[in-house]
Amino acid sequence: MLAAKLMIFTLSDKFTESMYVLANEPSVALYRLQEHVRRSLPELVQHKTDMQSWEEQSQGAIYSVEYACSAVKSMTNSSLYFKNIDGLLRRAISMKEQISNSQGRRSHDVTPSPSPPIPSPHAPPPSS
User: Fold this and answer.
1) pLDDT tens for each residue of 10-29
2) What is residue 11's three-state secondary structure?
């Protein structure tokens, strides 16, 4: 009988210990979780801050590249304007040479006379 009482006491003691462990296990788990969060949160916050900074820098670089691409496209579209400017410059040089040649012939004439100003094709007419 003593052995049976001892066995019941041991069984009862083990059952009590198991209940104690089971009852306290959730709080131990929550404590470990809290400890983990407390240790890892500052590092996670730093990573988040770094990522936000890198995102801002990336957005700035993307904007710069897009702006440069649009500038290059505008330059390729401006070839028509440069051709027009080239033609106008050639006409201006030709007109200047004609004026110089006609003034050179006049200076070789008998008496030089002041010539009236030649109106520019794009200038407004003189007001009287």
Assistant:
1) 778 887 887 777 777 777 77
2) helix
User: Does a structural domain hold residue 23?
Assistant: yes
Nearest to 121 by CA among 91, 77, 80, 100: 91
pLDDT tens-digit series, residues 62-91: 999 999 999 888 888 888 888 999 999 999
In a domain, 125, yes or no: no
Does residue 25 form part of some domain?
yes
The CB-side HSE value for 67 (13 A sphere, CA atoms) comes to 6
Q: Are 106 and 113 in contact, with CB atoms under 8 Å apart?
A: yes
CA–CA distance, 7 with 1 (Å, rounded to integer): 10
Compute the distance between CA of residue 12 and CA of residue 118 in angstroms, rounded to an integer: 125
Total number of domains constituting the chain: 1
Q: Is the pTM here over 0.70, yes or no?
A: no
| Token output for 47 | 């990573």
End-to-end Cα spacing for the chain: 143
